[in-house]
Amino acid sequence: MAKAFFRLQKFLRRTQFLLFFLTAAYLMAGSLLLLQRTRLVIQQGSRGTSANQALPVPDGMAGAGVAEPRTLQNPRPGPRLLVGMDALQEPAPDQRHSPRWLVSRNSELRQLRRRWFHRFIGDQEPMQTAGFKAMKHAAEHKGTYVGCFSDDSRERTLKGAVFYDLRKMTVSHCQEACAERAYTYAGLAYGAECYCGNKLPASASKPEECNSECKGEKGSVCGGVNRLSVYRVEESRGGARRRRNVIYRGCFRAPENLTDTFPASLIQPNLTVEMCSEFCSKKEFPLAVIRGRECYCGYPTGRFPLHGGADGLLCSGTHNASSTAEGRYCRVYQTPVQDTRCTDRKFLTTKSKVFVALSSFPGAGNTWARHLIEHATGYYTGSYYFDGALYNKGFKGEKDHWRSRRTICVKTHESGKTEIEMFDSAILLIRNPYKSLMAEFNRKYAGHLGYATDRNWKSKEWPDFVNSYASWWASHVLDWLKYGKRLLVVHYEDLKQSLIPKLKEMVEFLNMTVTEDRLLCVENNRDGNFKRSGAKQKDFEPFTQEMKDLINRYILTVDEALRGRNFTGLPREYVPR
């Protein structure tokens, strides 16, 4: 017995020593790794690094590599130094702008972006937290709490406009969004989803079943799982905004049978635009159509697609009588109500057999194209990156792994043989480089919806940005033309000009079918939530002659490459500027 006890004691002593040794080795390895990372950060922050060890890169340098999760929304001013990379080799003058040089340069830029992103990612979380705290507020609720109601996702009662903000949703934010669109009720669910409507849900639930805290407001309740916290929007606030949000769409020839075309109507002496718009808003229709003293409500349909508008003078007599020649025409107004026939979206129920990319240079309208595709097909689009701002606004595919094949296509700005050959096919979206460069520069310094300041445009960052990104615009197209297996080339300008034909072509490329009414709904909601409000005019020309000469050479190179692959060349408006 004593001998066995002695052996056990000896074994335990050896085990204790072994555990002590492994713990010490683990701590030493961790310390070495920490020292190595600290040394890297110190090198990156040093301004005395020699030219052959570091390369100054503008803050906008976040567009050519694998690692842009598009969370780089708020770059800090001033150049950054990227360590461990050789300076880009300056080619001979006669080799510049050739396809081979552009591809080589693009590869180098991608490597630089990867290094830049890994340094930046450590600072990202504090920046996001600061932005969240700035946006968070405990405002008093403007409406009256009605109660907790059950919510059926298959047949919603509040089926007006739908909004998501998975990080900053508050009761006030939802109420204001619904008031802007003239809805009577605002309902919140899952702590982050907002629904608007003019009719209360039929079945009430127990108050304690609405137990989800608002994502952007601690202590406030925003519904629950299949439960809605419903508020009645303040009447005076909603009434004031109804009149302001009515948009004149134009004069159109009236359909032969208006009562069959439009589901709701009203005949009112001394009918005004406000009367008709308010009537149609309460009925939850996006269009208010006026002919004389007749008011009709409905949607754009095959019978009434809102294409081919007539001269406005033909509608000038419709106030007097609908029986005259002028009565064959009607005035159409867009109410604040959202067209919801195409807002339902979901993930694919089975994995897609074809892995499709939606590829573009940054600033070329990729987010807008995703909005159009999602609403046309009813399926979410994925992303090679993760952009919290897009995810918070309802692009739920942002958080889904980009290789899950649960999305209809995957956004990417990548180029290079390896990244391209991962996809079976691709929609290649191309935009005028002048517009793309300006759009991406605005996003870098002011987010998806803002504008860079004049100070940004006149700083050293802008010419550095153009010099770096202009070549990437060209090499991105050249790489996809060279390595893409099956391509559909779409020009942003063509999509904007002929939305329905081009969108239908994109949907067919994705092997999907879509009804005409759904396409008309997409056209009615064409802008989405990420369109900058108008073009901010600058009192100076941002592109110098040297920049124009550089960009024009890239344009000619890309145009020649497209035609060489039997694709349509670049639109005429691209060259020369």
TrEMBL record:
* Keyword Mitochondrion in annotation: no
Annotated protein name in UniProt: WSCD1 protein
Q: Does the keyword Protease apply?
A: no
Q: Which UniProt keywords apply?
A: Repeat
Limits of the WSC domain = 142-234, 245-342
State the taxonomy lineage.
Eukaryota, Metazoa, Chordata, Craniata, Vertebrata
What organism is listed for this UniProt entry? Oceanodroma tethys
SUPFAM superfamilies xref list: P-loop containing nucleoside triphosphate hydrolases (SSF52540)
Q: Which family is this protein grouped under?
A: Belongs to the WSCD family.
Q: Name one GO molecular function term.
A: sulfotransferase activity
